[in-house]
Amino acid sequence: MKIIVPIKQVPETNNVKMDPVTGTMIREGIENIVNPLDLYAIETAIRLKEKYGGKIIVISMGPEKAIEAIKEAIAMGCDDGILLSDKKFAGSDTFATSYVVAKAIKELGDFDLVICGERATDGDTGQVGPGIASFLDLPLSTFTSEIVSIENGKIRVKRLVEEGYEEIEMTLPAVLTVVKEISDPRLPTLRGKLRAKKMGIPVWDTQKIGAEEQKIGLKGSPTRVVKIFTPKVTREGEKIIVKDEKTLYQAVDRIMDYLIKKELI
Amino acid sequence: MYNKLTPEIVEELIGIVGSNNVIYGNPDALEPYSHDEVAEKHYAHMPEAVVKPSSAEEIAQIMKLANKYKIPVTPRGAGSGLSGGAVPVYGGIVLSVEKMNKILEIDKENLVVVVEPGVVTNEINNAVKEYGLFYAGYPMSVETCYIGGNVSENAGGGRAVKYGVTGRYVIGLEVVTPTGDIVHLGGKVMKDVTGYDLIHLMVGSEGTLGIFTKIYLKLMPLPQAKVDLLVLFEDMDTAIKIVPKIMTFGRIIPTSIEFMDELSFKASCRYLNEKIPFEEAGAMLLIELDGNSKAELEEQYEVIGNLCMENGAIEVYVADNATTSERIWRIRRNIAEAWKQFSPHQSLEDVVVPISEIPTFIKRVREISEKYDIPIPCYGHAGDGNIHATPIKKPELSMEEWHKKLKTLLTELYMIVKELGGTISGEHGIGSKRKDYLPMVLEPQHIEMMRAIKKALDPNLILNPGKII
Amino acid sequence: MGEVWTLAEFRHGKLNPISFELLNRGKSLAQKLDTSLASIIIGYDIKKEDIDELIERGADKVYVVDDKRLENFIVETYAKVILKLLDEYNPDIFIAAATTTGRTLMPYIAVKKQTGLTADCTVLDIEEETGNLLQTRPAIGGNILATIKTLNTRPQMATVRPHSTKPALPDRNRVGEVIYKQFSDDVFSSKTKYIRFIKNESQQVNIQDAKIIVAGGRGLGKAENFKLIDELAELLGGAVGVSRDVVDRGWKTYPHQIGLSGKTVSPALYIAVGISGAIQHIAGMQTSENIIAINKDPDAQIFKIANLGIVGDLNEILPLLIERIKDYKKKEANLNV
To answer: Model pTM greater than 0.80?
Structure first.
């Protein structure tokens, strides 16, 4: 089984502090990590490989330093990596990104599955996975929470939807985007790190993947960001500190008042 | 022996620090100053008043006043201590340094930072970071504790293997003596053998010999990169045997080598729902390295990791980014929290034994644990033999039984420590909590010398009485 | 000028009320552009009342594709049907809800149409000079808002965050046009087979549609303590949400998770209990209408976005609050007798 896992390197934002004056993110000292949701895709791929054998290829579109993310995935247990990097890719929106990744996947030849994280924690769109499926004209399962079975060239999966789960069956090759429920990512091991270190990661550019220049980068992006601004989070309302029984009762009274006045109860 | 505070004396205190900086006659406001982080309530004691001076001069006047009326004074930092050191066991005045919280000078030429005692330790690093410098002291409570308390307790913590403990970085002190004089020890010089080393008499004196009003700390270049290894072993013997090997064969001194016994990491991993194969392990080490570049660290962790694998490790996990590093460290950090879900009553100990004796110590602890039917998870700093053996009260045990059992249990525990050539506190201090156990590990002459020093500096025994001796 | 289209979600024989929120959005866009507003509804056995209700709530036209083969959501089939409609009618704007369906279908369609799509918008507007759709969405964990335009390609597509606006109100006298469409067999072919739907037994899981969410964090301490959260949620007729930590620790399942790696919600009331308010959590709930936070740490980030903050021990506060709500409800019930 040949599995392709597209991943993204993102800024680590869990421990981000906000500048109290400007209300913007303090970017100093923020490192780059594998998009946390992609770790579930990587883990899913590794488990499938452990069960069915085969090969996992990680691909990532980004600058040179995104190789770190690819190597982290290899250290976890993926086999190969390819970096999609070209100045011409810069400024790609989700359409152009899906196109570049889809072209690279085509270049890789036959495969059985493409597994993506449900979305990236920086852009937070969740559009590239479905976009890749659309470009490749492949069946797609988004929000995949479980792989039920793979047999006779078909994969059966469960998708996490609003009111429960949907079970669907797709012919292979297919594209999955996965949610956290599907697996628990392993940690990279020393052996994995040593293997990743030795490995050369090929860099593919526009020419290598045979992409049309009018479909990539800023030029190939149908959307454009026209304005970026900081939301006003000046909600900070009243605060009651519970110190003793008296203030405890006052606090609960206040919650009740609030609920009643706002007709929430 | 001591006198009670009177409204008249309080008026005098107000005269020194102003009415805003005196708490008196308000039990609600005084209560937070009656305890530190020691969980057991019976170690707490209410102060009669709290004063919050802003300068050495004010503190000197307070001490003179206290001597005049024979009122005990207990200095206090952030109150994050674990030995009852800041608790006013004889009542009297709690002298809080919370108002003295300024970083006075960052001397880039001499690599020295001068701070007041009430600065939160973490803030020192936030401030010197932009100059590419760092202060190496790193108690586990770094986000809340004050530097003054760190110096008083000679705090250790997570980075001690490579960087040593607080005292190593204290090169100068301004101290108010128990009798109310202001004295200056050391300064910005890196070497100083002029006379007795009073700085290091003061460091770790737990607030019994003087009150620090200015602290000169040595700074180091800020390491640019960090890697953590989580190593799973079948048993504690194999795990601990690797520690000297890292230092000798590896020629590397890690920033920290933390160990966790089965009781510790299994509770924490289950609590955290961690899915690494921890059930197969009998011991874990968490090894942290820091250095100037990822490349340099890569070489080092490979050496250490390979050493571990060659010497019986089940698996070595490598964390070189925030996601994985957090996942590894939270296992260590959540041990206490995980056990707290089982029972909130714990006695957090910090005994020290020679590194090679850790496995024996843990075996002996298991025996005590069985004998008393009290779980005692052990974890801590393998790199320096400092062990947090933590007896935990079973929920079904009554408080009365618990205290009775704990007392004999601790005596037995400390006996083992002594037998193995160790001592009863590596970083939390003696304070009031371990005072009765001191004669177990110190020779009578040693205690006598300490008494003589105390008497010479504090003839009225005004400053932080009821502690250590 | 092409029409403004909204996707009416129809599933398991029911029209998703989110469709009315889209009509509210669409109405103001269509008015600004002086064009008509249309809903497309595809599925099987679509009821007349549902179609009428779309009109009553603002649609000038409804395009209906009713076919047994559209009974269940298959992205390839749905996309092909919608692409047929788009090709025939060339709407200027096409919006859908950012539900699991919308977030699957829209990117699949956008690629085929070679046009732009903006995810999870919270504000939609029309640029006066150009008539372009201005699509505003939170990014980088809600720390910034970005306004995005689709330059030259059409339709301009966006998914809209559920509950970021109110549903359009019905006007029983409104009339509109209903256009039934049928397509040839090849449109319905796909490589995907729908097997079954497994309803989530826990009623408290569908947090995205809940009006009230009671959310618990690490401060709860352990799984058993969630019975307080469960009870409070049930009393208020709300759903239970949690922070990432709680799911990581196995105290609650992933469908409850709110935040960057979970769900984004905008309920009328969000009660955050024992949640410190890491950016990754706040990103998923900061557009809630009312936020009440209970946390023992006075410096917790969550207080910065709370309308009402209580600093204290949740184990003291929640039982008392639950008791008070029960009393209140009893009194109300008596008054109504």
So the answer is: yes
